[in-house]
C-alpha cells in the first residue's frame, strides 16, 4: 500500500511533528475507478451560498486578483486564516474549494478563496493570463492577508495547478517566508508540468486534455471580448490539446519561449529542496491527470512531507460511509491537518485585524517585504 512514501524526515515546528498521521483512504465501492473519482469530484449536493466580501487586490504589474473573504461570526483578531487556490479552469466557486472553505468556516477559521489571475470574478481585471508558475500572485495574496490580519497565522492550500503554484512560492521564499505563514498544503499538484502534459495525451486521459483545451479556448475568447485592448494571440484553428494551447497562447503571452520553456520554468519540482515552511503534499497513485512517478523524481527538503494514497483519482477521494460526514475524505483531511499545524504553531502576537466586511481594493507589498 502506498502510504506516506516520503523517506525524508517529517516536517517539524520546533521539536514537534507539523502534520498529523493520515488515516487510509477507502474508496466508495461503486467508485474505485480513478476516472469515476475524478469526474465525481465536481458533483454532489450544492452547498449554501457564501456571503463573502470581495477584495480586488492590485498587483505590481497593474493586474488585479480577487480574494473572496469568508469570516465566521465567531472569528476574532489573531484567529487563523486559510488561503485557498483552485486548479486549472476553476475559480473561487469550484466545488472542492467551496466545500473546503465551508468546513473550515464551521471550525471558526476565516478563509480567502482566491481567483487566480484572470479567472472567476477577476476575468476582466487582468490583461495578462494565468499560468502555473505565477507564484508571485500567491505570495502577493499572502502578503496582503498578513498586512490586513496582523497576528493571524496563515495556512495556504493549493489544489492541482494551484498546488504547483503554492509549492513554487514556498520554494522561492525558502527561509525568508513571512512569519505568519505557518504551513503550505498542496493537493494533487502537477510539480512536473511537462510530465503531466505528456500524461494527459495518453490513452483515455486524452478526454481530459480535450476538455481542458475547450475550456481554455472559451476562456480566451471571453477575455478577448471583455478586454479587447489586452495582449492576445490569434490562431487559425483552435489548439488540439493543452500542450499546443500553452505553446500558442500561454507561453508567448507570459514571456516564455514556448511550452517547453514554460513547463521548465514554472514547475515547482526543482524547488521542493528549497522549501523551509512546513509543507504537505497529498496525492493519489491512481490520479489520471498527475502521474505519481513525478513525486519521487525531485529531492525534497526535510520540511516537505509527501502522502501518496493508493486510490482517490484527481481531487476525488469519495470514500466509504461511516468515516466522514459527507464521504469527502480529502477535504476532512485538509481540515484535520490545518488544525494540527495551528495547534503546534509558534505563538504570534494578536493585533487588530479587519473583519473583511464589504468590498475593498488595496495594493500589496512585494513578496519578501513583510517582517
Which terms would index this structure?
Rossmann fold; 30% helix; globular; two-stranded antiparallel sheet
Task: Explain what you see.
The chain is of the alpha/beta class. The chain has 2 domains: 253 residues, Rossmann fold, CATH 3.40.50; 71 residues, no CATH class. It is built from 9 helices and 11 strands. The strands form 2 sheets. It has a 9-stranded mixed β-sheet, with helices on both faces. Strands 1-2 form a two-stranded antiparallel sheet. A hairpin with a 2-residue loop joins strand 1 and strand 2. The longest helix is centred in the middle third of the chain and has 21 residues. The termini are far apart. The N terminus and C terminus are likely disordered.
According to DSSP, the number of beta strands is 11
The amount of helix comes to 25-40%
- Would you tell me the overall average pLDDT? 88
Determine the CATH topology of the largest domain.
Rossmann fold
- Rg of Cα set: 19 Å
Structural domain count: 2
Distance between the termini: 43 Å
Helix/sheet category? alpha/beta
Number of helices: 9
Q: State the CATH superfamily name of the largest domain.
A: Alpha/Beta hydrolase fold, catalytic domain
What is the element string, with H for helices and E for strands? EEHEEEHEHEHEHHHHEEHE
Strand order of the largest sheet: 10-9-8-7-5-6-4-3-11
Q: Which stretches are low in confidence, meaning pLDDT under 50 for 5 or more residues running?
A: 1-16, 348-371
- Major β-sheet annotation: 9 strands, mixed
CATH A-level architecture of the largest domain: 3-Layer(aba) Sandwich
Overall 3D form:
globular
CATH class of the largest domain: Alpha Beta
Strand content: 15-25%
Amino acid at each position: 500500500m502506498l502510504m506516506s512514501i516520503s523517506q525524508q524526515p517529517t516536517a517539524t515546528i520546533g521539536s514537534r511533528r507539523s502534520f498529523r498521521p493520515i488515516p487510509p483512504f477507502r474508496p466508495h465501492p461503486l467508485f474505485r475507478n480513478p476516472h469515476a473519482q475524478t469526474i465525481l469530484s465536481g458533483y454532489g449536493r450544492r452547498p449554501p451560498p457564501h456571503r463573502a466580501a470581495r477584495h480586488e487586490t492590485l498587483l505590481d504589474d497593474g493586474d488585479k486578483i480577487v480574494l473572496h473573504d469568508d469570516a465566521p461570526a465567531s472569528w476574532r483578531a489573531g484567529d487563523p486564516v486559510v488561503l485557498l487556490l483552485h486548479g486549472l479552469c476553476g475559480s473561487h466557486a469550484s466545488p472542492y474549494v467551496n466545500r473546503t472553505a465551508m468546513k473550515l468556516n464551521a471550525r471558526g477559521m476565516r478563509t480567502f478563496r482566491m481567483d487566480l489571475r484572470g479567472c472567476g470574478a477577476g476575468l476582466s481585471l487582468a490583461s495578462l493570463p494565468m499560468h502555473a508558475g505565477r507564484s508571485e500572485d500567491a505570495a502577493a495574496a499572502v502578503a496582503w492577508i498578513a498586512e490586513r490580519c496582523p497576528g493571524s497565522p496563515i495556512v495556504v492550500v493549493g489544489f492541482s495547478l494551484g498546488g504547483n503554484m503554492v509549492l513554487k512560492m514556498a520554494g522561492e521564499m525558502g527561509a525568508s517566508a513571512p512569519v505568519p505563514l505557518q504551513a503550505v498544503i498542496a493537493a494533487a499538484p502537477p510539480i512536473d508540468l511537462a510530465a503531466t502534459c505528456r500524461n494527459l495525451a495518453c490513452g483515455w486521459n486524452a478526454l481530459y486534455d480535450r476538455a481542458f483545451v475547450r475550456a481554455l479556448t472559451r476562456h480566451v475568447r471571453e477575455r478577448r471580448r471583455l478586454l479587447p485592448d489586452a495582449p492576445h494571440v490569434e490562431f487559425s484553428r483552435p489548439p488540439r490539446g493543452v500542450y499546443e494551447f500553452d505553446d500558442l497562447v500561454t507561453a508567448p503571452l507570459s514571456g516564455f519561449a514556448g511550452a517547453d520553456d514554460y513547463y521548465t520554468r514554472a514547475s515547482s519540482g526543482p524547488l521542493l529542496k528549497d522549501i523551509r515552511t512546513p509543507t504537505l503534499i497529498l496525492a493519489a497513485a491512481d490520479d489520471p491527470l498527475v502521474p505519481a512517478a513525478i513525486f519521487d523524481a525531485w529531492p525534497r527538503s526535510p520540511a516537505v512531507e509527501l502522502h501518496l494514497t493508493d486510490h482517490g483519482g484527481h481531487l476525488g477521494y469519495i470514500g466509504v460511509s461511516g468515516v466522514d460526514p459527507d464521504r469527502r475524505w480529502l477535504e476532512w483531511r485538509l481540515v484535520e491537518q490545518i488544525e494540527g499545524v495551528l495547534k503546534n504553531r509558534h505563538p504570534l502576537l494578536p493585533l487588530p485585524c479587519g473583519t473583511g466586511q464589504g468590498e475593498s481594493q488595496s495594493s500589496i507589498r512585494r513578496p519578501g517585504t513583510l517582517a
